[in-house]
Design brief:
Strand order of the largest sheet: 2-1-5-4-3
Helix content: 10-25%
Order of helices and strands: EEHHEEEH
Shape: flat
Number of domains: 1
Number of strands: 5
Largest sheet: 5 strands, antiparallel
Structural class: alpha+beta
Length: about 130
Amino acid sequence: MAADSWYVFIEEDTEEREWTGDSSFLQHRWQLVAGHHVDGGKRAAESKAEELADSHVPQCIARRLNPGGRPRRSVFRMHDGTWLVQVKYRYDELHFRVGIGELVRAEEEIKGKEPPEPPKRGFKTLFGR
């Protein structure tokens, strides 16, 4: 692992309709949609994050844009250094955030031992006969 390994991440505010009985509501969740390794250290990652805050168009809006079109955009620099972006297109509005992170630890997967097969139970043992 490189000593200076920086990444830029994009998280989008996604909506899912949840049902409870006869009524429904929209559930908002942040979903990681992109991660990019950036060469050049922290400053390069900050620069790339700002570039993505100015240019990223969420897929659900991008597929409805006319060629050459672009959505309305408000970009906010938050106190922690992340970017919060509000994108509006016609009647749709979406938020996403762009942040940077330094990779400090990565571990490889260890498969481990397979658990033993459970004993086979027949029809008779299920009903105690």
